[in-house]
Amino acid sequence: MNRFEYVRAGTVAEAVGAFGAGSRFIAGGTNLLDLMKYEVEKPGRLIDITHLPLKGIEEKDGGLRLGALATNANVAYDSRVAERYPLLRNAILAGASAQLRNAATTGGNLLQRTRCYYFYDAGTPCNKREPGSGCPAIGGVNRIHAIFGTSDQCIATHPSDMCIALAALEATVQVSGPEGERTIPFAEFHRLPGNEPQKDTNLKPGEIVVAVDLPEQGFAQNYTYLKLRDRLSYAFALVSVAAALDLDGDTIKTARLALGGVAHKPWRNRQAEAELAGKPATRETFTRVAEMIVAEAKPQSENGFKIELARRAIVRGLEQAAAGTPQSLSDKRIQ
Amino acid sequence: MQLEQSPPVSADTPIGITLTINGQRRELQVTPWTTLLDLLRERLDLTGTKKGCDHGQCGACTVLVNGTRVNSCLTLAVMKDGAEITTVEGLASLGERKGSNALHPIQEAFIEHDAFQCGYCTPGQLCSAVGMMEEGHAHSREEIREAMSGNICRCGAYTNIVDAIEDVMHQGGAR
Ligand SMILES: Cc1cc2nc3c(=O)[nH]c(=O)nc-3n(C[C@H](O)[C@H](O)[C@H](O)COP(=O)(O)OP(=O)(O)OC[C@H]3O[C@@H](n4cnc5c(N)ncnc54)[C@H](O)[C@@H]3O)c2cc1C
Ligand code: SF4
Ligand code: FES
Ligand code: FES
Q1: Contact, B116 vs B122, CB < 8 A?
Q2: pLDDT for res A332
Q3: Beta strand pairing status for A5-8 and A45-48?
Q4: For A283, which of A125, A176, A305, B141 is 20 to 30 Å away at the CA?
Q5: Cβ–Cβ gap B140/A4 under 8 Å
Q6: Count of CB contacts below 8 A, A vs B?
Q7: Domain A222-323 - what CATH class?
Q8: What is the arithmetic mean of pLDDT over A209-214?
Q9: CATH no. for residue B27?
């Protein structure tokens, strides 16, 4: 780990004010310290934000406001989240380990960086780490990489599970920065790599996430978070599906579907979601929509399997949601 | 205890912190890049806590910070100023406070159920198990397995580890 200055901020304004070139905020530290040990991150100044008063989970306009420093465990086990947003609860609990979730925070989870092997290996080129140096994952080892929204600059995926649920729930991100406060809709928070893969999100330098707001509609009856990975626990998703349905009998009123492990941001296809509205909640409907979504997929040399995996996971996820039988977190059999 | 927000602490200045480690209050000077794991092992000779991966991937470094289990390899010591830390060396006294004999019930159960081979993962497994029981979310065998999945055992003692934990849980945490 490199040597750095350490600043402990007491207020949001202090934290924002202490931010300069080469600074990083640190919350749970579970991603940043990992990257610092690999010298992928070498901040000159760490601004400890864990003393800011942002740990709470509060009622807000019929929904809930999750403080940026609420830990992943505290959010998942909050009784209001469990009752009203079980999709979010399940997505969080499908990620990392209990120890990591006890430390990891809402804000840090949003800003965690890709698990691309080359990004993690400071001895290799990587456009995300060093813009312009190249992308060895293209044509290289890319089994875990993206099938949607890639560019010729970067094919990395966004690794969070929590964010897939937040995308499906259409949360909003509250930020504060040198130019004041603003609200970012979840779909506009993370970016596609395009020509600037070094930018994971649309957060500006010095901006701090202060909260994530959940809207009232939580899809608490018909939802699932289905995560497929190389081992059954403590592994990142190869493909994951957050499915949420609002049903009228057997007819779909509203559908939300977000995919994880397949793109540089939580992947949604609004056309496919619109296609589900008004249709019967049947396997035929789900299959048609799944075909529609994967028609846009583009495989790399080693990850073509993700296309079929995603297709099947979408159908199964929508079936689980429609039946009101979300994927169990401990019994790993997929029903 | 609050540091001045500015000027920032320069890279070479150790920072004064207070930690209560296994019931003992310690005033320490640490450089900001010292992880809690390195502080425990390298400075305080509390080598019960193990370094497996140093990247949050194995759980060997699990300790309790204010009663909550975390990976000490991904925790900066300066950020835990004021906290109570319990390591494997302090579990027995937690047990004592609960009125049992020398070892913590989970330690006794690990011995009874032969829940280790090489023992390298064991301190992390023990602290994790205590933290897990305190959290109170895992009840069935499957839930225990999932809740303990942050602790890897290369010797594959998992079956016996879950047996030991179930044993203690079914006795209400005290034997
Ligand atoms: C072994 C391992 C397995 C994992 N498995 C999974 C998994 O399966 N699924 C999953 O989703 N995640 C997984 N994770 C990742 C984990 O969820 C993240 O590391 C965690 O959520 C990051 O939160 P943190 O508070 O520790 O962030 P930190 O490490 O403190 O910060 C991460 C980044 O966010 C920035 N930041 C933090 N807070 C703010 C804020 N409020 N405003 C602005 N910037 C901020 C920091 O500057 C830094 O760049 C895993 C991690 C490890 C180590
Ligand atoms: S996929 Fe992106 S993160 Fe990975 S090597 Fe290429 S540019 Fe870097
Ligand atoms: S040493 Fe900390 S998790 Fe492996
Ligand atoms: S007993 Fe050897 S690693 Fe678990």
Answers
A1: yes
A2: 85
A3: parallel
A4: A305
A5: no
A6: 114
A7: alpha beta
A8: 98
A9: 3.10.20.30
pLDDT higher than 50, residue B6: no
Read off φ and ψ for residue A46, nearest 5 degrees: -105, 130
Task: Kindly report which listed range (A38-47, A233-242, B43-52, B93-102) carries the lowest average pLDDT score.
Answer: B93-102
Query: Do the domain assignments include residue B155?
Result: yes
Cross-chain CB nearest to A37 (options B12, B54, B75): B54
**Residue A217 burial (CB count, 10 A):** 16
Partner-chain contact B147 A77, CB within 8 Å: no
- Residue B48 domain flag: yes
Residue B132 belongs to domain spanning = 89-171
Q: What is the ipTM of this complex?
A: 0.96
CB-CB contact of A54 with A68 (8 Å): yes
Q: Is the pLDDT of residue B101 over 80?
A: no
Confidence of residue A211 (pLDDT cuts 50, 70, 90): very high
Q: Which amino acid is at A237?
A: A
Nearest to B140 among A4, A48, A330 (CB): A330
- The residue assigned the tokens 């990850």 is A303
Please choose from A38, A40, A97, A111 the residue to mutate so as to test ligand 1's pocket, defined by most ligand atoms within 8 A of CB.
A111
Would the CB atoms of B33 and A4 count as touching at under 8 Å?
Answer: yes
Does residue B94 sit in helix, strand or coil?
Answer: helix
Structural fold of domain A5-50: 3.30.43
> Do B135 and B163 belong together in one domain?
yes
Interchain CB contact of A234 with B (< 8 Å)? yes
Does B128 lie in the same domain as B138? yes
- Identify whether B29 is part of a domain: yes
Cα(A98) to ligand 1 centroid in Å equals: 14
At A159 the pLDDT is 98
